[in-house]
Amino acid sequence: MMMPFKRQALVEFSAVESADRCVSCGAKEPVYIAGQQAYFNYSTSKRITRPTNADNPNSGNKVLLLSIQNPLYPITTDVLYTVCNPIGSVLRIVIFKRNGIQAMVEFESVQCAQKAKAALNGADIYAGCCTLKIEYARPTRLNVIKNDNESWDYTKPYLVRRGRSKSPF
């Protein structure tokens, strides 16, 4: 399980002996990933469990949590809509900057969300950067109060764009 914003990952092996070999080999010979030395150690957990079955395809959730790694270009609702909507009909998008850049995308159906996760997880929005790591989100519906670069409800195009509303006078 990737924890990109902690710069860590958990790996579950089928046997303890395999984990032992990984840790001992990593201690003997340095391992580099993207130019950074990786360190291997044992976790206090015996199994990897994702919160609220976040990776369970039967979770029945049509909202995905997208974590954008190495965001060298701006990420807006327009960018995410362009990437996600061809795979499955997007209803709402909310972008937030907590632990880097993350977004929640609500699809029309669970099947659309499953297709999008399968097609886009690990993909780059732009070549070599803005890599998507996708999990099922906890919320089952997004609440959008305004349409702008950080949130958009495609079912309510009349929501006012902040800073762009036109006065009739």
From TrEMBL:
PROSITE patterns: RRM (PS50102). Keywords: Repeat, RNA-binding. SMART domains: RRM. SUPFAM superfamilies: RNA-binding domain, RBD. Residues 61-139 form the RRM domain. GO terms for molecular function: RNA binding. PANTHER family: MATRIN 3/NUCLEAR PROTEIN 220-RELATED (PTHR15592). This is Heteroous nuclear ribonucleoprotein L like.
